[in-house]
Amino acid sequence: MSSNTSSPNTVDSPTQTEPDSALAVARRQLRRAAAFVDIDPNTVERLEDPSAVHEVTVPIERDDGTVETYTGYRAQHNSVRGPHKGGLRFHPDVTREESIGLSMWMTWKCAVMDLPFGGAKGGIVVDPKDLSTDEKERLTRRFTEELRDVIGPNTDIPAPDMGTDAQTMAWIMDAYSMQEGETQPGVVTGKPPVIGGSYGRDEAPGRSVAIATRQALDYYDKPLDEATVAVQGFGSVGANAARLLDDWGADVVAVSDVNGAIYDPDGLDIEAIPTHEEEPEAVTKQDGELITNDELLELDVDVLAPCAIGNAITEENVNGIRADIIVEGANGPTTFAADTVLADRDIPVIPDILANAGGVTVSYFEWLQDINRRSWSLEKVNSELNAEMEKAWAAVEDAYEHHPDATWRDAAYVVALERLSKAHDARGLWP
Ligand code: GLU
Fold it and tell me: How many Å lie between the centroid of ligand 1 and the Cα of residue 139?
């Protein structure tokens, strides 16, 4: 393993009481990485805060005739390189702070991939499992109306995230288009292909996790077909990553969902396991030794891919980790404190802003297809995604090699911050 481990002096040292909100983690990561880059401190200060956060109330009529009011957010972090871009979550843990932190990660993600977008994120504080399909549709349409003045194909383009999907995007596109008086497919990405969505968009985040894993194994001279992989989470990201890595010859030895994990040291029959979308929470019903999600994180594997939730790897469990490489499929699965321990233990972490960036990259392809009113084949999408991932990997690898004290996350931030810094310098401050 590499010796890129130490932390720059400018970093706040993490403490036992470190808050682990996405915003706190994102800010600490920014300050740590900024020490590696020749960047105007005023630009860093600006990047610590979003350009706007919209908070709306979203009332809907429930199926029983009562009215319920939900809270929704849209955090728009930075648009110096292009329109704001990022997902919408329907989840009980959505907060203003989480939306801001996640919107910051979208800014870096788009910059690492060199996409002409800035960062945004938002959502509604709701458990979608508590709503009928009709209620979800009413909630989505009303949320769209509340945000109509601040989203649009050239200003802020939402996409799916936790608890939302292609159908949610179709409702947003319809609600927005009806009010604008013209069909505007480019207002969202991750739509069904029949209304301007891109082939390969659903699988794209998992595909990029698989590509990042392939690149990382190659960097550390470990043949893919001899590698063992454990995947936490078998939703869209985890399942697609596991299936592709299995296809490419790796042994996926463990996968999990909310109920627990299954493990087979000789490799699981991945194709036989239904994804969360195909059959919710089916993982633990499959063949294999039943283990807990915590035990999965501690398996002695070549690659551990946390693809489920934020803050999965923390100060509490980081010392149990025995994987050689971590590839982040979820957004923010490693706390800042855990990251520091992993760096000290010489365990490379391929960061979310590179590893799961396939989603927003194919969102960009979708947006281009919408502008041109011309759809790409699945083969074209996958081959362009592969090319973009290899290009981004090369840029991050270059930064990693040039900064002996940088982690892979720092290196990805260096690439992003250099691009953002140049864009801020070129545009200047107005007035
Ligand atoms: N929600 C996805 C992410 O976190 C995709 C965002 C997008 O496609 O705009 O990267």
Answer: 21
pLDDT score, position 386: 98
Question: Does the C-beta of 360 come closer than 6 Å to ligand 1?
Answer: yes
State the closest ligand 1 atom to the C-alpha of 157, by its place in the atom list counted from 1.
9
Which of 119, 116, 183, 195 is closest to 156 using CA atoms? 119
Q: Tell me, in angstroms, the distance from the centre of ligand 1 to residue 385's CA.
A: 14
pLDDT at 13: 40
Residue 189 in contact with ligand 1 by CB distance below 6 A: yes
CA-derived radius of gyration, the chain: 21
Domains detected in the chain = 51-184 (3.40.50.10860), 204-355 (3.40.50.720)
- Is 103 a pocket residue for ligand 1 (Cβ < 6 Å)? no
Q: What's the predicted TM-score (pTM) here?
A: 0.94
DSSP 99-165: HHHHHHHHHHHHHHTT-S-EEEEEEEE--GGGS-HHHHHHHHHHHHHHHTTT-BTTTEEEEE-TT--
**Catalytic residue flag (residue 121):** yes
CA of 289 to the centre of ligand 1 (A): 34
Q: pLDDT per residue over 24-52, tens digit each? A: 999 999 999 999 999 999 999 999 999 99
**Residue pLDDT, tens place only, 336-348:** 999 999 999 999 9
d(CA 119, CA 87) in angstroms, rounded, equals 10
Q: What is the mean pLDDT of the chain?
A: 94
